[in-house]
Amino acid sequence: MKKYDSILSSMAIQQLTPDIAREKTVIIRTDFNVPLTHKAGKTTVADDRRIGNALQTIQTVIEAKGKAIIISHLGRPKNKPDDKLSLRPVAEKLERLLDKPVKFASDCVGEVTENSVAQLQPGEVLVLENLRFHEGEKKNHVGFAKQLAAHADIYVNEAFSTAHRSHASIVGIPKYLPSYAGLDFIKEVESLAQLMEKPKRPFVMVIGGAKISDKVAAVEHLTKIADVVLVGGGVANNFLKADGIDIEKSYVQDVPAGEKKLSSYIEVADDLIQQTRHERMLKDGYIPLPKIIYPIDVIAAHSPESTKTKTIEFFTQDYTEYKGNGDMFLDIGPQTTRLFRELILQAGTVFWNGPMGVFEQDAFATGTREVAQAVAKTTAVTILGGGDTLSAIKNFGLEGRFDHVSAAGGAALEFLSGKVLPGVKVLKAKK
Questions:
Q1: 327-346, pLDDT tens digit by residue?
Q2: Which residues contact 18 (CB under 8 A, 6 or more apart)?
């Protein structure tokens, strides 16, 4: 925990202020890796949430009569220009959101870009072309980082979602410029660190989604801190199988668990169950429940496209006589949903990452919808993460009902696993 105390202590991470940006040329690393729509020869931004997250920092520079140079990656180009992954449509969307002209440079380094930077006036904004059109970005080439740094007086990282990457625009530029965190970057760090340092209790963690692999380190770390962990989605199948349940044809990651070469994700789930078997969470102040709670019933069908469903109740006499016929578990069942809702509603802090089932299909949306509504209704501090989680709350019309919604994905999960991210470390104040 101590390392997060240092992150949040006064000026541990240097934050951009109007005085710092005043009359300076500021290169801002954003995450404008947004979905695009290609229609009738026109490319447009399909979802501008990530652009919106950076607006406050960009406006801070503009209002301080600074010059704002925006850099970002977009998609996975093969180290060369790709018209379908150009940031030009993003620059056009940013112009509309800022309600002021935004200039665009057809490269991020080189003579053309240098000329565009030289012509930039105080209060103006310039978007540079996709960083990943150059192999120097992902390989963190010194020369590429120096070229980017040469554009500006100071560097600002407003892309917490990329802070786990050791790329030139994340860890390379700060070697050559005074470096600061953007306003949304700071908000991400503070919100996520709060979960590990001083969560208001009871702290309820809700984990779902299809894969356990991208969440396991965060789950292992936060399980030590949370009062109760509610597990749904495909992740729950690992715990059910570890508990001896026949999960039939349900999706499960029964493969070697990354760095833990000798363990499968089933064994990781079993280890977590065994480690917490003597820990209890008190529901309603007096009913003892296991610290890790996975489904006691599920909604099953032959496929996600099926509308013919059945409810399977585990740990009952009926279940001992149940003969599976190739079903898939596609949502948490009504008893599990009710229990999860009740625990969420009595929480002091809720962290939710991952849907409870295949919420895109109406037949399997109930668990995710009920959990989402409970998280929206609770008086607890609510922190959400994960692309599918964001899609779910949008689908259910619950946007704007939570204290913090992180679009940081893998970076947030690595941060919550206890790691100090490369992109955070380089922003810490020099002693």
A1: 899 999 999 999 999 999 99
A2: 60, 63, 64
Side-chain half-sphere exposure of 134, counting CA atoms within 13 A = 24
211 annotated active-site: yes
**Non-local CB neighbours of 125 within 8 Å, separated by 6+ positions:** 58, 62, 68, 70, 94, 98, 100, 101, 102, 103
Residue of 24, 29, 50, 67 marked catalytic: 50
Which residue among 211, 249, 280, 283 is the active-site one? 211
pLDDT band at 194 (very low <50, low <70, confident <90, very high): confident
Q: How far apart, in whole angstroms, are the C-alpha atoms of residue 69 and residue 266? A: 47
Q: In Å, how far are 164, 369, 389, 391, 431 from 398, measured between CA atoms? A: 29, 10, 11, 10, 44
Instruction: Give the gyration radius of the chain's Cα atoms.
Output: 23
Give me the sign of the Cα torsion angle 403, 408, 411, 417: positive
Residue 410 among the catalytic residues: yes
Contact in structure between 156 and 186 (CB atoms under 8 Å): no
pLDDT for residue 10 is more than 70: no
Q: What is the pTM of this model?
A: 0.86
232 belongs to the catalytic site: no
User: Of these residues, 410, 419, 425, 428, which one is catalytic?
Assistant: 410
Omega before residue 422 within 30° of 0, cis: no
The answer to whether 357 is a known catalytic residue is no
